[in-house]
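Hello,

I think I submitted the protoporphyrin IX containing FE job twice by accident. Can you confirm which output corresponds to this input? Input:
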Amino acid sequence: MTAADKPPADDPATPHGPDTPFHQLGGEPGVRELVDRFYDLMAIDERFLRIRALHPNTLDDSRDKLFWFLCGWLGGPPHYEARFGHPRLRARHLPFPIASRERDEWLLCMAQAMSDRGVVSPLFERLLQSFHGTADWMRNRPDV
Ligand code: HEM
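Support: Only one job matched these inputs. Its output is below.
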């Protein structure tokens, strides 16, 4: 594993068990609803136009991939790894220009999705902090 592939230390996927964010969100149905809300918002809310433009025309595959990834990342079943192997998330994002502005759009979209799905404190803050660590690590372009 290279340094660029190493996940940030605040990856919430440990420890496994009933106290994981995965279970607190309601398991697979809860994670699916969160991902669906995230991409629904990205599709309709003009605050997220910049990151929407980086995605394919149809978001169906993006929804599935983020759902599979988040299940494992949040402490549930490793569906993404089972299909695609190691996520290499930073490498997979290199084709997309991600600076602070794109990072912040992504995080605002996720914060709005969590809020709309009724995710409350302290889970909300814990997850937002973890998402921030991962999104920040994905930046691959200087700010202009
Ligand atoms: C920082 C801002 C981010 C931007 C602009 C961004 C953008 C994108 C784009 C354009 C794709 C390709 C979509 C597709 O092929 O259907 C993608 C894929 C993906 N993103 Fe992000 N992303 C960001 C952050 C994140 C974060 C924080 C996570 C996880 C916590 C994440 C997880 C994923 C996953 C799992 C995939 C699928 C990778 C694959 O198998 O091809 N992304 N992202």
